[in-house]
Design brief:
Blueprint lengths: L14 E5 L2 H11 L1 E7 L6 E6 L2 E6 L5 H13 L5 E10 L9 E9 L5 H4 L10 H12 L5 E8 L8 H9 L4 E3 L2 H10 L3 E11 L11 H16 L2
Parallel strand pairs: 1-4, 1-5, 5-9, 6-7, 7-8
Antiparallel strand pairs: 2-3, 3-4, 5-8, 6-9
The chain binds hypoxanthine (HPA).
């Protein structure tokens, strides 16, 4: 048991999927896992552990933004021994070639600031995905009837971003999409020798203003869970 995760030792699997939304954790656990049981409800940040094809898996909400994800990831790795952590979430499309409903598999996550800045200071650390997970996820995604992109994303601290010039620089540097968590996940995985990946569905587009209707989101979320589970146990 930690400050933010009320699970008993052994209640958390070595493989953890991290949706931002705790209700997505509940839905994914009930839909994809066998024998899913609630292992955490501290602050309503629901976490479930069950099995997928016989493999133990935990699906734990991370909350929104790097400070929140950092708390759960630190405790999952350092206190509960998590070894493979895959973020499953949504992102905003940035490039014209990226369409809403597409899947982005994040090879790198650029950020302006993360909770790890306090130790990185002047260093521009390059947060990157685990190669084995990235490769397996790209392969798993190929069979889906959606566009798949593998490349760099931007982990922002601001959903309502007023720095249009910053987004322009991201686009200039071929950043596929924007979300708010992956850079800190990748940095913590590097620090504590865990494997990490972010698999994202493009829920809206910064250039076109298009957005996936809410009644369609569950379906695209299911694709991500499937990709993440296949990658974790490839
Ligand atoms: N910005 C940041 N995070 C996001 C977005 C966005 O446009 N869409 C989904 N997550």
């Amino acid at each position: 048991m930690t400050i933010h995760i009320g699970a008993a030792p052994g209640d958390i699997a070595e493989t953890v999927l991290l949706p931002g939304d705790p209700y997505r954790a509940k839905w994914a656990a009930e839909t994809f896992l066998d024998d899913a049981r609630l292992v955490n409800e501290v602050r309503g940040m629901l976490g479930y552990t069950g099995t997928w094809n016989g493999h133990p898996v935990t699906i734990q909400g991370s909350g929104m933004g790097m400070p929140s994800l950092s708390i759960y990831t630190n405790e999952l790795i350092r206190n509960f021994g998590a070894k493979t952590l895959i973020r499953i979430g949504s992102c905003g499309g940035m490039l014209a070639k990226v369409n809403i409903r597409d899947v982005i598999i994040a090879m790198t996550a650029t950020t302006v600031g993360s909770p790890s800045d306090s130790i990185m200071r002047e260093v521009n650390f390059a947060p990157c995905a685990d190669w084995g997970l990235l490769h397996a996820a790209a392969h798993a995604a190929e069979i889906l009837d959606v566009g798949v992109h593998v490349g760099g994303i931007y982990s922002s601290d601001t959903f309502y971003d007023e720095r249009a010039d910053l987004n322009e620089q991201m686009v200039r540097h071929n950043i596929l999409g924007v979300e708010m968590e992956a850079a800190e996940l990748y940095t913590l995985a590097a620090r504590y020798d865990a494997r990490a990946l972010a698999v994202l569905t493009v829920s809206d587009h910064l250039q076109t203003g298009e957005a996936v209707p809410s009644d369609e989101r569950e379906r695209s979320f299911g694709d991500m869970v499937e990709i993440a589970l296949k990658a974790a146990f490839a």
